[in-house]
Amino acid sequence: LVAELRERKLLDATITCGHAFGGDYEAVSIYSALAVARHLAEMDAVVVAMGPGIVGTATRLGFSGIEVGQVLDAADALGGIPIACLRASFADHRERHQGVSHHTRTTLRLACRAGALVALPAVGGDGEARLRADLADSGLLDRHEVTSVDPGDILGLLASHGLAITSMGRSAEEDPILFQCAAAAGRLAAGQLAAGRSSTGRASG
Known about the structure:
Layout: H1 2-7, E1 15-17, E2 25-27, H2 30-39, H3 68-77, E3 83-85, E4 88-89, E5 99-100, H4 102-111, E6 117-121, H5 125-137, H6 140-143, E7 145-149, H7 154-160, E8 166-167, E9 170-171, H8 176-200
Parallel strand pairs: 1-2, 3-6, 6-7
Antiparallel strand pairs: 4-5, 8-9
């Protein structure tokens, strides 16, 4: 997927760190990777994704995605604006991943010590109400700054770029909320950049 995004000029540069390799830049840790992004690649916004591979044990703490908390803390420690993308689904048959996944709830409640911006896709109806209720029940509305964001027509945008993306074997059409969460986080980041440029003449770090 990253290779396809680069081919379509939807990513300016890639950075790999830790056990991942092969990016345009390579770094040892998430801290050095973010520093490379800001000072060498001169990026205004960075999308951090885990790889290679995700491990889960169907237990509260036994999943590799908990490292998202460390990533958000690193962004905050380096003077950036940490924005959390929700993992959510209404198509996953596993109860722990229905609505806002336990991965997100555990990570933002336990593993992330900094306050992050959390993008809540404004999809309306029962879907948005379920997501907000899950965040409230997990105590995350008090721990982080949750902002409703219109995700736009992300399915149409993916199609216009010829991107057929799946997650857990499901297409964007089969489980749109997962992709709407990502779109909302991206739009929230774009809004932060626009606000930073208007107030300082340049983008936020």
